[in-house]
Amino acid sequence: MRLISEGFSQALHLILGLDPDLRAAAWRTLQISGAATVVSLFLGAPAGVALALSRFPGRTLLVALINTGMGLPPVVAGLFVMILLWRSGPLGELGLLYTPAAMVLAQSLIALPMVTGLSLSAVQSLPARLRVQIRALGATRLQTAWLMAREAQLPLLAALMAGFGAVVSEVGASLMVGGNLRGSTRVLTTAIVLEASKGKFASAIALGLVLLALAFSINLILTRLQQRGRT
């Protein structure tokens, strides 16, 4: 208990003192996870809506692959991106390994199936007659997809929150493709692992509290937008 109480006391001191390393890790976490979430949203939401409104051979297999991807272990995503960006890999010449860009790519790969799958479910949960009514009014396929997405905007926001939650809390992929380099690729999760491995539990607790506060703040904003849509 003494270790825990002292850890929280020192953590509070670090937070209130605006420790430079802590602030840098928090800001980088927001940048990388935020960018990955935006990428997954712009790719995953349209893909999910399109899948919900389409019928073609192999669709069931594709949906099954997406649903499987929702449980993709972060280390597997990190391994795939690492091989892709390795010096002898297909994109090795770009020199992106151990950079924030590599971390964004890995985290996007983690969040994409989740956003796509939940977007698909959101549109499929709408009344079947709604699509028929929209098409009967003369809407094109693109207009139909847009209107269906608007009707499902609340669960789509839930998909966005799930995607952000998945990437902001992951550590395996970030370590593999980012390398936890101070001042470059160190984020809150990887910093927690480093500090805990060195026995610096006060710093680890401080980083953990900041991570929880960051995740709560972003989800609070998204939840307010979601609940406002119910009124």
Structure commentary:
The chain is mostly helical. The protein has a single domain (2-228), classed as MetI-like fold (Orthogonal Bundle), CATH 1.10.3720. Helices cover 77% and strands 0% of the residues. The chain is built from eleven helices and no strands. Helix 2 (20-53) packs parallel to helix 11, helix 5 (100-124) packs antiparallel against helix 9 and helix 8 (153-168) packs antiparallel against helix 11 (201-228). The longest helix has 34 residues, at 20-53. The termini are far apart. 35% of the residues are buried.
Question: Topology, please?
Answer:
Elements lengths: L1 H15 L3 H34 L5 H11 L4 H12 L14 H25 L3 H9 L4 H11 L1 H16 L3 H7 L9 H10 L3 H28 L3
Helix pairs in contact: 1-11, 2-5, 2-8, 2-11, 3-5, 4-5, 4-9, 5-8, 5-9, 6-7, 8-11, 10-11
